[in-house]
Structure formats: C-alpha cells, structure tokens
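Dear V.,

Thank you for sending over the compound details. I've combined the ligand you provided, NDP, with the protein sequence from our construct and run the structure prediction for the complex. I'm sharing the raw inputs here so there's no ambiguity about protonation or stereochemistry in the SMILES, which I know was a concern on your side last time.
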Amino acid sequence: MTKKEQKTDIGLIGLAVMGENLSLNMADKGWHVSVYNRTVPGVEEGVVERFVNGRAKGKSIEGYTEIPDFVESISAPRKIMMMVRAGAAVDQLMDQLFPYLSPGDILIDGGNSNYEDTNRRVALAESKGFRFVGAGVSGGEEGALNGASIMPGGSVTAWDEVKPILQSIAARAADGTPCCDWIGPAGSGHFVKMIHNGIEYGDMQLIAEAYWVMKNLLKLDNEEMASVFAHWNEGKLRSYLIEITANILRHKDKTGGYLIDKILDTAGQKGTGKWSVINAMELGMPLGLIATAVFERSLSAQKNLREAASKQFVCQHSQVVYNKPELVKDIYSALYASKLVSYAQGFAVLQKASESFGWELDLASIARMWRGGCIIRSIFLNDIAAAFEAQQKPKHLLLAPYFKEEIQQLLSGWKHLVAHAMKEELPVPAFSSALNYFYSLVSSKLPANMIQAQRDYFGAHTFERTDELRGQFFHENWTGHGGDTKSGTYNV
Ligand SMILES: NC(=O)C1=CN([C@@H]2O[C@H](COP(=O)(O)OP(=O)(O)OC[C@H]3O[C@@H](n4cnc5c(N)ncnc54)[C@H](OP(=O)(O)O)[C@@H]3O)[C@@H](O)[C@H]2O)C=CC1
Ligand SMILES: O=C(CO)[C@H](O)[C@H](O)COP(=O)(O)O
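Below is the predicted structure of the protein with NDP bound, written out as structure tokens.
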C-alpha cells in the first residue's frame, strides 16, 4: 500500500461491517484516516485493497496491510481505534502494536469487549506509557456510517484528544447533543455498553412477546400487527426497535412471502446479555427481566427439545373471539410497563457498579447518550434523564413521580394481559417477570422470613428479628438437639 507524506488524524483496525462504516463516517466528517486489516493467507486476503478501491475510493482513507507502516502513517500522539472481534483478538493486536507506539499514544477499543478485560488493558497500556479508551459503540451498520452512540471510558487524559473525532461521528439527539460523552475510568465505558446491550435483549424479548400475543390470541395478520407497531411508534413507545419491528412484519422476500414467517425461531447471542446478568449477580442486584430474555434465547435454541416436548404437552388456546382494540391496549400496557421495569433494573445496576467501583457514573448523561444512534434509542430516555436530573433524586426509577404515575395508569392492563396469557397457556416470560418484580418491589413484606428460618434450621446461618434492632443476628436451636454454634453471617 502507498505511504503518504501527510500524516493521518486517526487509524482504524478491523474492516468488517463496523470498522468499514466507522472509517467512512470519519472521512465524511473531514478526518484523514489510515485503515488496517490483517491478512491471513488463504483465508483473509485483499480486505484492505477491496475497501480502498471500493467504498473508500476517492475518500481521505489510506489503506495499510503492515502494522509498522500503518502506525507510522498516523500523526502523534496517535489515536488508533480497534473494531475487531472482542476477546483474544484485542490482546493479540495490542501486542503487535506496542513495539511501534510512542509514549502518550491512544488505543481505542470500539468492540464489545468485556469490561474486566478493559480494566486490565487500561492498566497494561498505562504501565507502558500509552493510553487506552474502552469505547462501547452502538448503532449497528447504519449507526456506524451515519452516527452511533459511543460510550468512552478509560485513560481520562485521552478524552480531550479523542473527543473531537468521537463526537463528530456520533449521532445527535433531537436537541443537538452528541450521543457520546465521557463515561468514567477503567472499563466503565464497556460496562455501560454491556448494560445497554442487556436492555436491548430485554426490549427485543418484550416486543417479541407483544407480537406473539397479537399473533396467537388475536390472530392478527402481519400487516395488522405492523400497523399496531407503527401506531405505537407515534406515541410514548417511539423507538428504533418498535420502528424496525413494523418494517420487519411488512417485509416480503423474493418469493413474495412474508420473511418473518420463514425465519427459524432459534435466537443467537454473542455474550453481552449474559455478561450483564453475571455482573448484576456479582453486584447482588436484581436484573430479572434481562435474565429472562437471555434464558429465553437459550430455550429458543433448544429447538429439538421443544419440538419433542410440544408433542407431549399440548397447550390449549380457547376459541374466544376477543375485543381486539381492548386486548391491543392491554398488550401496550404490558409492553410499556415491563420496559419501564427493565430500564429501572438496568440503571440500578449501573448505579450499584458506580458505587462499588468508584466510577461516579452520571446516569442522566448516560440516558441522554442513548437517545440517538444506538439500538435502544427511544424518546422515553428523555423522561429517564429528567428523572435522574431532578432535584430530588429517585431511590428507584419506578418511584420517580412521572414513572409512578405511568405505572399506575398501565397496571390494570398489564396484569390483565399476563393473567390472561397464562390462562391461555401462552408464554409471556418477560411480561410476567416484570410484573412479579413490580409486586415484590412494592411489598414491604416478602416471604424471605421463611428462607431465613430454613437457612438457620439446616445450617445455623442466622437471621435478624423483627422485634430486635437491625444488624443483630440470631440462631435458634430448632430441633432441640442442635448446638449453639452459628455459621458466619455474610453475604456473597
Ligand atoms: N455488528 C454490530 O452490529 C456491532 C458490533 N460491535 C462490535 O464491534 C466489533 C466489530 O464487529 P463487526 O464489525 O460486527 O465484526 P466481527 O465481530 O465479526 O469482527 C470482525 C473483525 O475482527 C477482525 N479480527 C478477528 N480476529 C482478529 C485477530 N485475531 N486479529 C486481528 N483482527 C481480527 C476481523 O478480521 P478478518 O477480516 O481478518 O477476519 C474483522 O476485521 C466487535 O467487537 C463487535 O462485537 C459493536 C456494535 C455493533
Ligand atoms: O452491540 C450491538 C448493538 O448495540 C450488537 O448488535 C450486539 O452484538 C448484538 O448482540 P447479540 O448478537 O448478542 O444479539
């Protein structure tokens, strides 16, 4: 590849769907970009050449196939963004890049890396005199090209230098704010992106359940369902995922049939939903709706088992003729209320992570960053940002005055829909998980006294008493032949 006299503004590694489009986006915003992709003989050849002579032709993009030439082409302090498969590839690339970097150079990992890897990589890069930014990027192919939501965190001194480029390629919310701002230290940017993706899983499961109830109980056809989603997209549920659901339902393939009806019902997953749940568990935080969404994808993938089971237990749907507008209203209530629960759970995990790791996350700013560009973009993120910005910070998002009122309006339709779907033997796991969470949340008393009694009965794990001060732990000799020795009292 050609070496140019003038150094470029930024380097980008990894010319798959995200990397190609991000580099085109950068070039369109006036940045001079160097791009690199590995060459694997016989497997991955000519990627750079095809790109620079194809989509990048005539743009201020230079292609490189050797790391030393690529690094050399970028002006110092260098900014190098990696858009490669998360995991070992990032470590391998860092090892290849380190020998050619100069002190102060900045590596940006825009992939869906695990935040713990980013914690480690920030420390490693800084120990060598470099800087490292873990920047979650959301928006898929279109966002990468036209404006993504970008969540950068890591070496704080890098922010001033990467900010002009990252904010220029970010989407803008309706009020003109770029959907990219500094998140915090270490792996906080990737943690926030992980929870974004977890919420994405939840939204998708909820929309899928709404679709399933309309299809199976109301017997709406694809065009009718598309109209319902398109109508919802004009109101409080306005969001990218609702919008594309309407488009998907209307889409016909080249045979003239609806494609949605030909897609196998087994969902894939690349890990960020699962990590969200694992990390919520580590932090001791309930994230039931996202967990349900992850497990439903896993269950969907057990297609053979489900087919066998469906022959042994036949679910009974009644032949009731429904009042369609009424039930559609209930589905709306279940979808909107469950979505509120999901975001409340997700933001509570962010709050807890912020406190546990000392990140000082600005939850309102995160909500604002998600209003444009990303997959979960929606207008109700404005209401979430407003709730976190209020003078009186809510203890929990659902207790913020606006959301409390919304839930009060939605509750009747939501519980009716869940109860009805259960009676009709139709699975609505995320709607019901959200409803159960809500009822538990608003119960000042739960049956955990029984769990504590059982733990103490069989393992002397102790309990607190309602008639004593909090923080004192007691053990009962339940059987008369147990001892007084207690197990340690701690929570993991
Ligand atoms: N697709 C999407 O919608 C989104 C993806 N992301 C994240 O962005 C990143 C890029 O995603 P995407 O564009 O979808 O493509 P992939 O996740 O499929 O990543 C492919 C890229 O990684 C490169 N790569 C893989 N292994 C190595 C290695 N060992 N050394 C160097 N390069 C390697 C590939 O090079 P080669 O061509 O040689 O195989 C290719 O350029 C991922 O982390 C992904 O999770 C983030 C947001 C949205
Ligand atoms: O990061 C993204 C969007 O924000 C990706 O689209 C994400 O990888 C999709 O996740 P999965 O493949 O697990 O459904």
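A first observation: The pocket of ribulose-5-phosphate (ligand 2) is lined by residues 112, 138, 140, 197, 200, 268-270, 272-273, 375 (CB under 6 Å).

Warm regards,
I. M.
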